[in-house]
Automatic annotation (TrEMBL):
PANTHER family: PHOSPHO-N-ACETYLMURAMOYL-PENTAPEPTIDE-TRANSFERASE, PHOSPHO-N-ACETYLMURAMOYL-PENTAPEPTIDE-TRANSFERASE HOMOLOG. This is Unannotated protein. InterPro entries: Glycosyl_transferase_4 (IPR000715), PNAcMuramoyl-5peptid_Trfase (IPR003524), PNAcMuramoyl-5peptid_Trfase_CS (IPR018480). GO terms for molecular function: phospho-N-acetylmuramoyl-pentapeptide-transferase activity. Signal peptide: none annotated. It holds the Pfam family Glycos_transf_4. One of its GO terms (biological process) is cell wall macromolecule biosynthetic process. Keywords: Membrane, Transferase, Transmembrane, Transmembrane helix.
Length: 352
């Protein structure tokens, strides 16, 4: 359990004190955020704010995780390595998008199709690798069974599992990307979800079939190490939030949002709580649904809109709500969604 505290604390310190260094470096290179002209007018004041802050989140979480293992002499699990690989590769896709935006000085980087292809490719590689590497008990990082609050009896088979993982990763990474529209909004919501993964990983380890055999035990390959990784991600996001909160001194950019979305999907798959990600990441789901509803209604009604602007947070901006007010209220919603997810997880265990 010491690894959880060490990894989280180290990641927090690296992100908290490393972000100002990154800000100065990005400012010297003039790598500032490009703001769309069709967005809320209040956002024009953010033009030029350093972006690509996801770099420090990725580095801080990885270093914190590895130092936690180095101090405790506990080997790194294959499950955590695969999730880290997914996070790094999606972060690379986001970095390319951010780089093209700042280098071209326009709000368009990679095309939507290019981003989807990149996300899908790396998600498929992750999914294909994760159904291999069985341990002595025959457990692989990702199960061939569909998981809700735990593995179900529905066997998808290798092909459908990889397709399902691709869908999860693309959906979650884009959901975090859509949420990252106000200072600190996505970062704060991600912290809460990663902390929930810490609790779930620790619980699954304590109630694992190798530790506590029984009809109600969990068959998850590396739950405790995944909890360590989740703690390092929570710590890195918290340190970054200090500088990302309104008025933001730096944005995570697609580098951070795609990486965090990949980490959320990867942790949900490896902890075998895939569908539980819906309530745990409820705010991301709500904001994504607002975009889908807006587009579908716009096409069906011949140009009419449900919201003044999508994603949902910008609708409330145009209604006159202050940015800090929106972020705080959305954080409350995110916290309630996480509480609901944890409640469902525990209620299922009790019901057994």
């Amino acid at each position: 359990m010491r690894e959880i505290l060490i990894a989280g604390a180290i990641a927090l310190m690296i992100s908290l004190f490393g972000t100002p260094v990154l800000i100065r470096g990005l400012n010297r290179k003039k790598y500032g955020q490009i703001i769309r002209d069709d967005g809320p007018r209040s956002h024009q004041t953010k033009r030029g704010t350093p972006t690509m802050g996801g770099i420090i989140i990725i580095l801080g979480s990885f270093i914190g995780f590895l130092i936690g293992h180095l101090v405790t002499s506990v080997p790194v699990s294959i499950s955590a390595m695969l999730v880290m690989g997914l996070m790094a590769t999606l972060g690379f896709v986001g970095f390319l998008d951010d780089w093209l935006k700042v280098s071209r000085q326009q709000s368009l980087g990679l095309t939507g199709r290019q981003k989807i292809i990149g996300q899908g490719l790396f998600a498929a590689i992750f999914g294909n690798l994760a159904i291999h590497f069985a341990d002595v008990d025959g457990l692989t990082p990702v199960s061939l069974h569909l998981s809700t609050l735990r593995d179900t009896s529905l066997n998808l088979g290798p092909v459908l599992v990889v397709i399902w993982i691709v869908f999860m990763v693309i959906g979650t990474s884009n959901a975090v990307n859509l949420t990252d529209g106000l200072d600190g909004l996505a970062t704060g919501a991600a912290v809460m979800t990663f902390l929930a993964f810490v609790l779930i990983g620790v619980w699954e380890f304590g109630q694992g079939c190798a530790v506590t055999p029984g009809i109600n035990c969990y068959n998850v390959r590396d739950p405790l190490d995944l909890a360590v990784l989740a703690a390092s991600l929570a710590g890195a996001c918290t340190g970054f939030l200090w500088w990302n909160a309104s008025p933001a001194k730096i944005f995570m950019g697609d580098t951070g949002s795609l990486a965090l979305g990949g980490a959320l999907a990867g942790l949900a798959a490896t902890l075998r709580i895939e569908l539980l990600l819906v309530p745990l990441g409820g705010l991301f789901v709500i904001i994504t649904m607002s975009v889908i509803i807006q587009r579908l209604y716009f096409k069906a009604s011949g140009g009419k809109r449900v919201f003044k602007m999508a994603p949902l947070q910008h609708h409330f901006e145009l209604l006159g709500w202050g940015e800090v007010t929106i972020v705080l209220r959305f954080w409350i919603i995110a916290g309630l969604c996480v509480a609901l997810g944890l409640g469902l997880f525990y209620a299922q265990w009790v019901a057994k």
